[in-house]
Amino acid sequence: MLLVLDVGNSNILAGVLDGDKVKLRFRRNSKGEAASDEIGVFLKTALRENGVDPARITGIAACSVVPEVSYALRSACIKYFGQEPFLLQSGVKTGLNIKYKNPQEVGADRIANAIAGTTLYPGENLVIVDFGTATTFCAVAKNRDYLGGLIMPGLRISMEALASRAALLRQVEIMRPAALVGRTTVESIQSGLYHSNLEAVKGIYAEIKKTSFSGENARLVGTGGFSKLFEDAGVFDTIEPDLVLQGMRIAWDLNRKAK
After folding, report:
1. Cα 53 from chain centroid?
2. Domain 2-87 maps to which CATH number in 3.30.420.40, 3.20.20.370, 3.30.70.20, 3.40.50.1380?
3. Domain 111-248's class?
4. Tens digit of each residue's pLDDT (9 = 90 or more) over 60-79
5. CB–CB of 41/80 below 8 Å?
6. Is 167 buried (19+), middle (13-18) or exposed (0-12) by CB count in 10 A?
7. What is the pLDDT of residue 138?
8. Residues 6+ apart with CB under 8 A from 92
9. Which region, left, alpha or beta, applies to residue 244 given φ > 0 means left and ψ of -120 to 50 means alpha?
10. Is the pLDDT assigned to residue 193 strictly greater than 70?
């Protein structure tokens, strides 16, 4: 079994994969400093509590956008699992042609999403929208060129900014509103968060198709923690919540075979 770790700005998302099947998912807050022992104990405890023997983990793959957590995570994998983790970083095989001016600037999670997207939907132009701490857009051409993308504040960041900067507004549960026009402050905030992201997706997707793909069709893929909010919005061609986990699995396998 493969243990996959996606270290984001808010959470560490862990997944256990048996082949290409995700058997288990669990999360841990990634904010603040964390010692390697703390991470190691958490991982082994979470596995056991969910019925997975840590001894059955035969490989570990990780991607991180939080450099200060990466060292502790690597040390935890070595000490508690006896394994050097595969890290998705500059220099490893991805199967992509990164067109960023500086390829090292592309977040590892965005690369993982693109790897999975091009594997699941070969020969298609892709626009991948990841609803995480930030909402990111990635444009990937059908020849596996990673063209670049956009980054904007995520739903939670936007909600927290409203609550912290407006005296009469407060934090709310992020959910799909029942109606466009809210009839309470809470409903109004929820509607604003949801529809601002939805309309942004519609408009940005149309512009990416026009400017990056010369008007050709592109599959619109949603992923990330908040992607299920938009599952029935009629905008996305597909919602793939585990895209980053699958991308890490594919990258791990690709580099293992190369060795």
Report:
1. 26
2. 3.30.420.40
3. alpha beta
4. 999 888 877 888 889 999 99
5. yes
6. exposed
7. 97
8. 86, 251, 255
9. alpha
10. yes
The tokens of 107 are what? 């977040």
Q: pLDDT tens digit string along 204-234?
A: 999 999 999 998 999 999 999 899 999 999 9
CA neighbor of 197 nearest in space, from 258, 252, 238, 156: 156
Q: How far apart are CA 13 and CA 7, in angstroms?
A: 6
Q: Has residue 258 got a pLDDT over 80?
A: no
Place of tokens 């690369």: 111
Active site residue 6: no
| Total-model pTM | 0.90
What does the domain layout of the chain look like in residue ranges? Answer: 2-87, 111-248
Residue 256 or residue 247, greater confidence: 247
Kindly tell me if the per-residue pLDDT of 129 is higher than 90.
Answer: yes
**Token pair recorded at residue 12:** 């560490």
Same fold yes or no, 2-87 and 111-248:
yes
Active-site pick, 20, 37, 109, 130: 109
Query: What b/e sequence results for 57-85 when a residue is b if at least 16 CB atoms lie within 10 Å of its CB, and e otherwise?
Result: bebbbbbbbbeebbebbbbbbeebbeeeb
Q: What is the pLDDT of residue 194?
A: 95
Average pLDDT, the chain: 91
CA gap 115, 251 in Å, rounded: 7
